[in-house]
Specification:
The protein has two helices and 13 strands, in the order ααβββββββββββββ. It is an alpha/beta fold.
């Protein structure tokens, strides 16, 4: 009977070590890929990249924009990002880089007049879900990398994870 208990304890210890190694690896990967966030290093270059992706836009040569900060989420701990300000005219919004490691992260962009420009994102072994208001515009600045994951926009950095973009249309 004691051998079985020791066997279970040993197996639990092995599982704990595997989980700890996976977590350490995921965090190391996030740290390793974080310098790549520099693809759209400045806010101005990110805005210029997004405006180019939008094509025609109502903002002119030196647009004013608001900044929306994303949080860092590890193991699902941290805040989701929400823009719930509704404007009556087009509003340009720069979404600062965020990091998601081994958990789920959600970005709700609810302004139907929003022209959202995501600087980039880092998603390691997790899911990033971006939910847009039906008529809003969305672009991701810079280059992208996907390693063993799914990121249909193929921008930002996704390692062994999934990034989805969906519209909230009635």
């Amino acid at each position: 009977m004691k051998l079985v208990v020791d066997g279970v304890a040993t197996e639990r210890h092995r599982i704990s070590n595997v989980i700890a190694r996976a977590a350490s690896g995921a965090i190391a990967a996030a740290v390793a890929f974080t310098p790549l966030v520099g693809h759209a290093a400045t806010a101005e270059s990110a805005i210029a990249s997004c405006l180019g992706a939008f094509g025609e836009h109502p903002f002119g040569a030196n647009p004013k924009y608001k900044t929306l900060a994303m949080s860092v989420k590890v193991f699902g701990i941290g805040q989701d990002t929400i823009d719930d300000e509704i404007t009556t005219s087009p509003a340009l919004v720069l979404i600062r880089p965020g990091v998601n490691v081994m958990g789920g992260s959600r970005i709700d962009l609810r302004n139907p007049q929003g022209w959202y420009c995501m600087q980039t994102s880092v998603n390691v072994m997790g899911g990033l879900n971006i939910k847009l208001a039906c008529n809003s515009k969305f672009a991701i600045a810079g280059e992208g990398t996907t390693v063993m994951g799914r990121a249909p926009e193929s921008k930002g950095i996704t390692v062994m994870g999934k990034t989805t973009v969906e519209r909230d249309c009635p």
